[in-house]
Specification:
5-stranded parallel β-sheet; 5 helices; alpha/beta; 38% helix
């Protein structure tokens, strides 16, 4: 199974430790095409290793998004890129699982929470301590269907 993980990069890297936990758990279910999002050496300036620039990053990520079987997005830290990826994934009719931590004090966008539909787009509030359990529950349901 190819898994596309979304998390904030240029929107802020405050949640990188959470991203690491999520990616580590996701690797038990398949290949995480975007595991670099969880790397602590990736700053909010983005990837320095892509010499071709933003266009190359966009095109590569859209290719990965197309290849993916499921998208898992940590949406607590607002990010234009994550929102864009989710919109593209919806248009591609991909299965999407969004994770939001209410303990952050933020309010999740209605455009994300309101997209929950029980078929392809799931939104789940969670605590950092329970993230592995929440992912296990989602993937168990996914494997049954």
């Amino acid at each position: 199974m190819n898994i596309y993980f979304c998390g904030s990069i240029r929107g802020g890297r405050q949640d990188v430790a959470v991203y690491q936990k999520i990616v580590q758990k996701l690797q038990k279910y398949g290949k995480v095409l975007t595991e670099h999002v969880s790397h602590s050496d990736l700053s909010d300036k983005g990837e320095n290793t892509v010499m071709e620039g933003d266009k190359a990053i966009h095109d590569r990520d859209m290719k990965w998004l197309n290849m993916s079987d499921v998208i898992v997005a940590e949406v607590t830290q607002p990010s234009l890129g994550v929102g864009y990826e989710l919109g593209q994934a919806i248009a591609m009719k991909k299965r999407i699982f969004c994770l939001f931590r209410p303990s952050s004090g933020r309010t999740l966008s209605a455009m994300i929470r309101g997209a929950h539909d029980e078929d392809l787009f799931w939104v789940r509030d969670y605590s950092e301590e329970a993230v592995e359990e929440v992912l296990e529950e989602y993937f168990n349901k996914l494997n049954k269907s």
